Amino acid sequence: MKNRFSLPLSQKEINSLKTGQQIFLSGTVFTARDQVHKKLAEIIKKKGRLPEFLRGQTVYYCGPTRAFKDSVIGSCGPTTSSRMDLFSPLLIKKGLKVMIGKGRRSFLVRQEIKKHKAIYLVAPAGCGALLSEKVKKAEVICFKELGTEAIHKLDVVDFPVIVAIDTKGKTIFKK
Question: Is 152 labeled as catalytic in the residue annotation?
Answer without folding.
Answer: no
